[in-house]
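Worked example 2:
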Amino acid sequence: MNSNSYWRDNLRLIGICLIVWFTCSYGFGVLLVDELNRIQFAGFKLGFWFAQQGSIYVFLVLIFFYAHRMATIDKKHDVDED
């Protein structure tokens, strides 16, 4: 196993997840809220929805995405539990 390659893949995945999380929670919920509030989603203004619910849903999806991708990375680098 090449530990540098394993950690590079791991840190890349973490970076991607953090960028998506930051964009959805801070970007959509704070910075772009006025622009997004012009759009209706499920009866709510989209900016409000992201600030209250959307960022939580995105965070939950990211948890499962991270777990799935880490299992793939573990198998790729032969450090999985199987």
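The helical segments are 3-31, 33-36, 46-76. The chain has a mean pLDDT of 91.
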